[in-house]
Amino acid sequence: MPVPPAGRATPSPKPDYPLDRVARGVIAVLTVILVLLLVGGDRSQPQVRQFTWADRTLSAQDRAFILTFNRPMQQASVTDNLKITPPLPGRASWAGRRMAYTLSQPVPYGQRFTLSLQGGRDQFGRQPRLMRPFQADFRSRDRVLIYLGTQGSEAGRLVLHNLTNPTHTVLTPPDLTILDFQPFPQGDRILFSAQPATGDPLAPPLYTVTTGLDYPPPVSLPGAPQLPAPRPGPAGRVDILLDDPTYQNLKFDLSADGQTILVARASRRDPQDTGLWRLTPQGDLQRLNLPMGGDFLITPDGQSLVMAQGEGVALFPLQTGNEPLDFLPKFGQVLAFDPLGNEAALIKFNSDFTRSLYRVTNQGQEQELLRVQGSILSALFHPGRPVLYVLLAQARPERAYQELPTLGAINLETRAFTPLLSFASPQLPHVSLAADGSALLFDQPGDTPDAPAGLWLYPLGEAMNPPQSLGLKGQRPQWLP
User: What's the Cα-to-Cα distance from 461 to each of 391, 429, 458, rounded to whole Å?
Assistant: First the structure.
């Protein structure tokens, strides 16, 4: 038997541990999978990974959803097979595996919707694969209005009426007589001023009351204010927001994001002490170093206010300084902004005692829409169409030249004015436009041979239907957002 050379040892074989055998097996399996992927590609079935509106409750500010896929898709196969029931017209745009769908009109309130997609195919591979069918549901907010009751136990109180799920709720207690009110943008609360039964009639406090509605904040349009989450609570919970007997609250306005309240206040001790104060929903109060003028409105972005100032209208910042950002000397009053604040409706008082309604853009462009011998009382921009609804008061020869209200619509592309309703009473109605643009609300101040007093709904579809009585007795109706 051979003898190994001196000084050299024979190496012993390396032991085969179980862990080593497992590692070699895993490496072999992964190698096979990698080879298969390289040869045949990813065989996973195309599918929708996320739909941003799934199971959501939408508002008029929700104007676009996103579908995210697990693989790049043939775009036409998706858009051609996408179905929304009832239909929501819009347009699609793509960025990689994500498809955005933007509505051409606000989502109609009071409806449920189903989105379904089947037949879409992925983009790569020799044979594009059929996607897994997808379906999801979503809905829109209820059609809800609020108004000031005028009869029986509702007189002087805020009343909420749900048209979608018929409910009728008196929100405020009988010992508060409502003077003015404005809904918060989420519809969860109402800001109002009221006279307590035992309080000082010259110093009405500001309050909030919950509506009982609890909707998620919308995914806002670019440029629109981002709304905070609502404050859910049972309907009818009243909280005092501002109660100072040394000042009289003259007028207030609530910003579109619900985070700023401007209050015009006058001291009861010093008649010269009149000014604007900034109030938060949490009750923090700050005086603004701004000259007090006439009517004022907060701009839709919540950063500025417009206010009548002598022979014109001034734009002031709310955050810093008191110097105006802009001054429009030819106009005397701002009636309304469009939802994004890109344009406004303003009144010009002419030297011939007529009044003109102008459309003014944020780029400084001015366009006269209407000139009347009478009064221009209010204006409302349609949220999805180039239409401005206006309430006028003009002398009518058939009524001995008495000024009576007329509700009309102006086509902003052609400037054509179309009368919609003529009122037989000189009392001015209050008009409110639904957030989805589907209908107008108005109050009929007094009984006439053709229309009883109360609240009326005027549908604004393609076919103009006549106004419908809601059978509710009240004043100053307003749609919730």
Answer: 19, 22, 10
Instruction: Tell me the average pLDDT across 279-291.
Output: 87
Q: Which long-range contacts (CB under 8 A, 24 or more apart) does 316-322 make?
A: 316/290, 318/260, 318/278, 318/288, 322/288, 322/289, 322/290, 322/291
Q: For 451, what's the count of Cα atoms within 13 Å in the CB-facing half-sphere? A: 22
Q: Given CA atoms 281, 214, 147, 409 in this order, what sign does their dihedral have?
A: positive
Q: Sheet with 474-479: list strands edge to edge.
A: 167-170, 158-162, 144-149, 474-479
pLDDT tens, residue by residue, 229-261: 677 779 999 999 999 889 999 999 999 989 999
Hey, how many other C-beta atoms are within 10 angstroms of the C-beta on 9?
Answer: 6
Start-to-end Cα distance in the chain: 102
Residues in the chain, total: 481
Enter the pTM of the model.
0.86
Same domain, 239 and 260: yes
Question: Distance (Å, rounded) from C-alpha 301 to C-alpha 223?
Answer: 8
In terms of Cβ atoms closer than 10 Å to its own Cβ (0-12, 13-18, 19+), residue 39 is exposed
Q: Which is higher by pLDDT, 419 or 326?
A: 419
The verdict on 176 and 82 lying in the same domain is: no
The last residue of one of the domains, among 312, 329, 346, is 329
Q: Which domain holds residue 150?
A: 142-170+423-481
Q: How far is CA 293 from CA 110, 236, 321, in A?
A: 41, 35, 17
